[in-house]
Write a structure and sequence with these properties.
Blueprint: H1 3-14, E1 18-24, E2 30-35, H2 43-60, E3 66-69, H3 74-89, E4 95-103, E5 109-113, E6 119-123, E7 126-127, H4 131-142, E8 146-155, H5 166-174, E9 178-183, H6 184-192, H7 201-211
Parallel strand pairs: 3-4, 3-6, 6-8, 7-8, 8-9
Antiparallel strand pairs: 1-2, 4-5
Helix pairs in contact: 2-3
Bound molecules: orotidine-5'-monophosphate.
GO cellular component, one term: cytoplasm
Organism: Azomonas macrocytogenes (Azotobacter macrocytogenes)
Domain Phosphoribosyltransferase: 45-158
């Protein structure tokens, strides 16, 4: 695990973003951990989150033309990444987002910001079963743009509809990489190395045995 990944997990736990307990996921699965990116809820936390995303993005060498934040949660995330890429990596990138409802007046439409064109990097929080991200692909396709990759904070590495993970299915179906700041194995490594958090390890491992990739 890289140092920024360890720091990111520590930061997420400190902020209460990454929690351990019993949570019902969108997929209906009951998970012993949950990642709530909405709790990066101060200016400083959001700025720091943006720097972690930007570090993962810089590490990935991914080529793209525009950052896209899908409504709602992706919007501040894409903005934070755009700022961090400029301030930390000297890259002033175009970025845009969508509305959930089309506006009939003013500028109209559902897209706001830079044109959604060319190779699109989607910024989001978490992929579990991959439902949310597949909806985003439709928006990109409708603009005749093409996905270049997905940047997320946490890869839960859960099985999708096959033996592959939901993320591997997205990579296969759309021919694009999914880059994350951290994945479940790094969370497990972090838990194992922390005296107070070690108690959660068995449940997270059991969950991985049930829903994780083999
Ligand atoms: P999928 O559509 O199943 O990939 O689930 C992704 C969405 O689930 C995320 O965009 C979140 O809204 C939510 N989620 C989290 O935010 N954190 C988690 O740890 C797990 C989920 C989830 O419900 O699976």
């Amino acid at each position: 695990m890289q140092e920024y990944q360890r720091e990111f997990i520590r930061f997420a736990i400190e902020r209460g973003v990454l929690r351990f307990g019993e949570f019902t996921l969108k997929s209906g699965r009951t998970s012993p951990y949950f990642f709530n990116a909405g709790l990066f809820n101060t200016g400083s936390a959001l700025a720091r989150l943006g720097r972690f995303y930007a570090a993962a993005l810089a590490d990935s060498n991914l080529q793209f033309d525009v950052l896209f934040g899908p409504a709602y949660k992706g919007i501040p995330l894409a903005a934070a990444v755009a700022i961090a890429m400029d301030e930390q990596h000297g890259r002033d990138l175009p970025w845009c987002f969508n509305r959930k409802e089309a506006k009939a007046h003013g500028e109209g439409g559902t897209l706001v910001g830079a044109p959604l064109a060319g190779r699109v990097l989607i910024v989001d929080d978490v992929i579990t079963a991959g439902t949310a991200i597949r909806e985003v692909m439709q928006i990109i396709k409708a603009q005749n743009a093409r996905p270049a990759g997905v940047l997320i904070a946490l890869n839960r590495e859960e099985r999708g509809q096959s033996e592959l993970s939901a993320i591997q299915e997205v990579e296969r179906d759309f021919g694009i990489p999914v880059v994350s700041i951290v994945s479940l194995p790094q969370v497990l490594e972090y838990l194992a190395s922390d005296v107070q958090l070690k108690q959660y390890l068995p449940k997270v491992e059991a969950y991985r045995a049930q829903y994780g990739i083999r």
